Amino acid sequence: MSEILLRAERLTRRWGGLVAVDEVSLDLRRGEVHAVIGTNGAGKSTLINLLSGEFPPSAGKVELLGEDISRWPQPRRARAGLGRSYQRNTIYPEFSVEENCRLAAQARLQDPWRWWRAAHRQAAVVDRAQDSARRAGLGEALGASAGALSHGQKRQLEIAMCLATTPQVLLLDEPLAGMGADETERMLALLGELKREHAILLVEHDMEAVFRIADRITVMVNGKVICCGDPAAVRADPQVQTAYLGEHA
């Protein structure tokens, strides 16, 4: 059994009478890609926001490496090993690839007693930034302007910036959105490499890609989990066929 790095137990988020996430439980294991799928409004992005600390749960709890982090703010969760990417690009387009990664690394490798030293002269920060870019497939583009990258490369850069914070868990919100076939293949290969050392939560609408890369899949409808299992079991589930895949048992 793989090591559980992050666990959610009966996680719930309400806004007045609206229940966006309704008692969702799941765990993320090192060495696995755990995909969360569902139609628009199913609660997938809200679930990621709860796990990452964008806002607190109304009920339930989140554990990271066995510690209850349900009330921790997002920066504290990031420092503890939780990395997150967003649906929209959150890079700094006017900076280079290396500079983007260096900013992320600085957030993790803070050294307030050396505030006078330029960031590019801090060896640990530079090494972390360059290594993260290489792992994300951007080793040949360290000096390139982030704004000049292709769409797929920008998504790779976001993952590189996550890696620069040395996370153990990666929460990826639609990393394949807007990609062509070649870019999708590169991203899937990258996720396959990253899962060896990380636990990955993947929210994605590209069903072909999900069923190729995911080790486990959780299916949400109206904030609730209706099915969780390996891809074959999820594909064969009558509730999933009816509610999400548009098929009939």
Which fold name fills CATH's third level, the topology of the largest domain? Rossmann fold
By secondary-structure content and strand pairing, the structural class works out as alpha/beta
Counting copies of identical and different chains, the oligomeric state is: single chain
Unreliable stretches, pLDDT < 50, 5 or more residues? Answer: none
Shape: globular
Number of domains: 2
Instruction: Tell me what the CATH architecture of the largest domain is.
Output: 3-Layer(aba) Sandwich
CATH superfamily of the largest domain: P-loop containing nucleotide triphosphate hydrolases
Helical content band: 25-40%
Strand content: 25-35%
Total beta strands: 10
The H-and-E topology, N to C, reads as EEEHEEHEHHHEHEHEEHH
N-end to C-end Cα span: 32 Å
Largest sheet: 6 strands, mixed
| Computed CA radius of gyration, to the nearest angstrom | 18 Å
Total of DSSP H or I helical runs spanning 4+ residues: 9
For the residues shown, what is the average pLDDT? 90
Strand ordering within the main sheet: 6-7-8-3-9-10
